[in-house]
Amino acid sequence: MTETASGPRGAASARGNGKAPMKPGQVVPAPGVSHEAKAPAKGGKGMTIQRIHTKPGVHPYDEVVWERRDVVMTNWRDGSVNFEQKGVEFPGFWSVNAANIVTTKYFRGAVGTPVREWSLKQLIDRIVKTYRKGGEDHGYFATPQDAEIFEHELAHALLHQMFAFNSPVWFNVGTKSPQQVSACFILSVDDSMDSILNWYREEGLIFKGGSGAGLNLSRIRSSKELLSSGGNASGPVSFMRGADASAGTIKSGGATRRAAKMVVLDVDHPDIEEFVQTKAREEDKIRALRDAGFDMDLGGKDITSVQYQNANNSVRVTDEFMHAVQNTERFGLRARQTGEVIETLDAKQLFRDIAKAAWECADPGLQYDDTINAWHTNPETGRITASNPCSEYLSLDNSSCNLASLNLMKFLREDDTFDTETFVKMVELVITAMDISISFADFPTPEIGQTTRDFRQLGIGYANLGALLMATGHAYDSEGGRAIAAAITSLMTGVAYRRSAELAGVVGPYNGFARNAKPHAAVMRKHADAADAYVPFEDFDKQILELSRTEWQRGNEIGAANGWRNAQASLLAPTGTIGFMMDVDTTGVEPDLALVKFKKLVGGGSMQIVNNTVPRALKRLGYQQEQIEAIVEYIGEQGHVVDAPGLKPEHYSVFDCAMGERSIAPMGHVRMMAAIQPFLSGAISKTVNMPEEASIEDVEEIYFEGWKLGLKALAIYRNNCKVGQPLQDAKGQKAAAAAAASVAAATAPAAATATGTSPAAATLYAQPVRKRLGKNRRGITSSFSVGGAEGYMTANSYTDGDLGEVFLKMSKQGSTLAGMMDAFSIAISVGLQYGVPLETYVAKFTNMRFEPAGMTDDPDVRMAQSIIDYIFRRLALDHLDFDTRAAYGIYTNEERQRQLETGSYLPDEDQQLDHETLAQSAPIEHRTEPAAPAKKTDPTTLPAPKSIGSSTELLEAKLGYAADAPLCLTCGTKMRPSGSCYVCEGCGSTSGCS
User: Fold this and answer.
1) What predicted TM-score, i.e. pTM, was given to this entire model?
2) 365-368 and 312-317: which strand pairing?
3) For the Ribonucleotide reductase large subunit C-terminal domain, which residue ranges apply (predicted)?
């Protein structure tokens, strides 16, 4: 939104003409000079920058051990190499995933040419030196020494993964490309064909640059209103079709992810009912086409025939409407031109229609208009009508916001206290850097550039909240967890606005401030009042909250004198790709996805690990080292904490995750959002996941509670509600079917020859053949005891050693239990003889839980969840090779003991062989020494099954069912949730948000 003389530019000019009182510290540009020209510091003095981590005379790079690595990315379709860069340089403590994603996503220059960046030093230097120059050019620093300290501290923070800028900064800053730093855009459209066509154009430019945008279509006349020519208007929904097609075309023309866009419509728009149903009805079409045999997966060749799939839809609801829902009243729909009510409807029925559509296809979400605008710092300029695609950035039309996220775990000390002093200094540093970037940034349209420079919206946020809560022994869905989140958020935003007020005293407040001085100050007081009113839960959050109150008070006092440099300061973004860059365990405000993760290794390959926060949390809760090791080992095998040995049931909730055996209830997510919302300038990118069995009434409750609890925006996702979500198991089934068909075709001629039938008939009637054991067979008979229940097992093998039959003896002959065990033995034996692999039975029957269960008399299987669980663990140990059973976490007692002592389940000679093989396979200049053995206190690590490529797929294997997440269109691995989007662990691609 660009203002005329009555707006921000006019306000700045009026101050220069003496028409408005000058605020202390304001800088007025000379007539005819852009406000982006170099501004002299107040009194000739800029900011004094304090050191946080660096030392005089020592560059932060010199305090880090660097190593060379090779980054190779393969194509998931055929295994071919689609990216390779050898000899890249990263600190030794950066994970393989972080290095891979930064190399492929953020290094600039053509691969294979001398201009290609190859070191993290080059990347960070490109950013921080540009920021330093921008600060020097615009009067931010008092002395050259302050500028150098700023550069070094910024480099240290990025190098040590303490925070990260949003992706456009890494893409563009310091390159020959336009210096675009913003990831979030809001556009506008008016009720004219020129404006609508310009909307298509501007969206296309933003999509081409890899970003997303949102806008409100409510100014466009409804299909129930007349045009000046006398005919009916098309209505906004019809124009959505054109924009959706444009977004899909631009996506398929170059990007490897779907376009990211948000479409908002006011609840009183006459076409609201049609808008609510758009995506739900298209979902019906997807189902019908899928059932008819069309490829309707995300990215499928036929999905493009379906409309409205490239946008998130939200209804902008008002307090008036929500009260009408509450009181079962009728609600008026208003003409766009005159504002008169042209139709009324049952508010409660419309609200149910919204909930039903969201239940069916996850759209539309809700944006709570009155709440949003009650916290708006610039109401004199215009209302907030829309958001970015993930709903965390809410501001004026034709504006943008650049983001940065802090890694909260970097501020948790070894003694589990929060380092508030360092956190405060880091927020000051990051806010200063973000504001400097607006001074040199480029923007996709002149209108967006003007509004952003006039209002200087920033979006500082954080990641790793879920990990911080677990590490300190707090459940995500608990009063203690919410109190910590609220206190940290309050401190972050309070410091950010205090630094903004200090910057205003050096380089002047934002140009739109004079006109909005009173409402801006009023919103600052609302934030401060929210901090004063929040009741702390314990000493941990009390100290943080008290400091935040001091920061709000200081900031408001400074702001009363100087004004503020930034109209907005904070929000909570999904932190997808940059989350991998920082090696965070949890993104944005999210809890942990699961307790067991998938980790790539430097020498190639991968393993599953129990989250590092788990043993730390157990120690915090008072468990001894032996207990911690046993619990962690159990989690590594089972994927959850239920019935973990020695773990108190009252501590289960600390380890609740977004998915898994104990997943956080939907309302737990809503309550967390409500706790932190009063302390954010913007909103929160988060989708409330609901189980598949959730009802429409459950969706209504979530949406209604979101309004009552003061949220600004809310969206839900019911598992498996969408058809166009390709699942790994579905793809696997297709591949398996194709493989089976291929095998059948190959064996058909042989079968035909043997039976005397035609190949076609042989293929059609092919049957499995039973391979019976010989009259004399080798076998092992062993006794066992599980939870006090005793029995015998006889396992007989073929001459080649493969298992062929199993006999189980428990209880007296003729008893029900004995009969069931006999029948079970026969079924398993016949299956084995018909070719069912033992591994299949092991995968299905291990971890089956029922009584009797508990301790066994087998040193290799110390605990069993049932007799069946024990039997198939024993069979796996006796008849499967190490690699196969290791994939299921099944080891002998000797192997477990060796792992505790040496960090490996393999004997010394096998370990040495593996290290030598890895070393010989690497180029000479890039060979590294074998990693040191893991300490005894390290979390359980298991080789990851070969078919697994991400944490989500690992979680599926642990849970036994498919997670509702799309496959990455770039590398094919299953993505994981990140705020309102999905992000790929394999290559860092996202499903929409930067």
Assistant:
1) 0.75
2) parallel
3) 182-717
